[in-house]
Every structure is written in C-alpha cells, then in structure tokens.
Amino acid sequence: MNFRSLSAVAGLALAVIFSWKLLRPPSGHRRRQPKRQSSSAGNSDIGTSSNSQLITSAIVSPSDDAGAQKPTLEQIIRQKLGGGRKVTCRLLGIILEERSPEELQAVNQATVRSSVVDVLLELTNYCDLYLMERVFDEESERKVIVALEDAGVFASGGLIKDKVLFCSTENGRTSFVRQLEPDWHIDSDPEIISQLARFITCQLHISQVKPERMASNVFTSASLEHFFQCNMTETHQKMISPFQLSDKKKNAGFCLIAL
C-alpha cells in the first residue's frame, strides 16, 4: 500500500509539473515584448514629426513668407498675356499723350506717356509688338516716330520702325489687326473692339468706364500700365486670360493693306 501510495503521489506531482510547463508562457516572448513597445514608440515619434512638418507646410505658404520675392514686370506681363506673344496696340490715348488725330496734327511734337514707358519697353522685348494709328498726314507720322525714338523704344531692337503702322481710316486699323492675326489687340475704340471680338483671341479695351456688355474675351483697364502693374497679390491669385493660347500662329510673311 505504501508503495502504491508513493507511486500515485509521484505520478500526480509529475502531472502537475508537466501541466505547469505547458501553461507557462515562453520566456522568449517576454524578452521580445519590450522591443515591440520600443518600435511602437519610435513609430509614434516619427508620425508626430511628420504631422508637424505637414502642419508647418500648410501654414507657411509663399504668399505668407515675408521674404518672398515680388514678381518682376516681365513675369507679370508673361502671366497676363497667358502665353500670347503677338500683340497689336493703338497709339493715341494709350501710348501717346495725344488722344485724337486732330490733336496730334495740332501739336508741335507728339509725347509718349511717361507712365507707360517701362511697360512698353518690356512688351517690345517679350512680344512681337505692332503699334498702329490713324493719322491725317505724313507730318503726324513723323511726330509719332520721333516721339517713340526719343522715349528709347527703338533702342533695344525689340521694336523697329517698320512695325509702326499708319492708316487714314478706322477701318484701316481694323484691317491691320485682322491681317496680322495677333494673340492680343489693345485699343480704346469700343466699336473696333466689338468688331474684332470674334476674330482675335484676347483684347484689352482701354477705358475709364467699364462697358455694361462686353465679349468674354475682352478685358477692360483704365490704362495699359495699370493692366500690367496691378496689385501683386491679385496677380498671383488669378490669371487674367482664361485662354490657353496655342503656338499654331507662325510669323509668316504678309502684305498689309491700309485703307
């Protein structure tokens, strides 16, 4: 009996020990647990750093940066023209102080508006620019050429005298524009602007008063310089031209017929 009792106790003890070992968690898992916690902590730090950078990037924008450079006049002109490189422009009242053929004929010499000189020079450097006007006589033509020469418009080589065109009627100016097929035409005559609206991609109407009705591809400004030297913030926020001007138009040879 004693032997059997001892054997039963021993067997029970072995069974308990065996069961305890099976139910006991492996020691290796305990050692790896801290590593997983460390890795999680590291990922948390990286995530926090990344989020901080995103928040900083969202808050600090070029427009908010006090040290950000303002766009140059050349950059503004490129942006405003929306890729257009061929431009035609009336002279009287836009480039010149004189506002009519009669006034031009009466003065001893024509005068280029001082406020428009910088814009005009930049346009001659960037664009294929043509200036045009209706005049009464050859003396008026000479006055215009001398005024442009005195203002230094021909000095850079961007504009040559052959690109200053004269005609005797308003229809002659319209004819010039249609033959040249510019990307932009600049004029102060609302009738001519209206006639050309369906032929020219974009037009700039120089007027102190914005017309009530105007084609969607016609923009209005009080002056040429104001159009290109408007508020810098506004210039960054929107493109004036809604059109993507193509490069299909080539500078092919042509014969201008003035009326």
Automatic annotation (TrEMBL):
One of its GO terms (biological process) is peroxisome organization. Residues 36-50 have a biased composition (Polar residues). Residues 26-50 are annotated as: Disordered. InterPro entries: PEX22. Transmembrane segments: none annotated. It holds the Pfam family HAD_Pex22. This is Peroxisome biogenesis protein 22-like isoform X1. It comes from Cucumis melo var. makuwa. The lineage of its organism: Eukaryota, Viridiplantae, Streptophyta, Embryophyta, Tracheophyta.
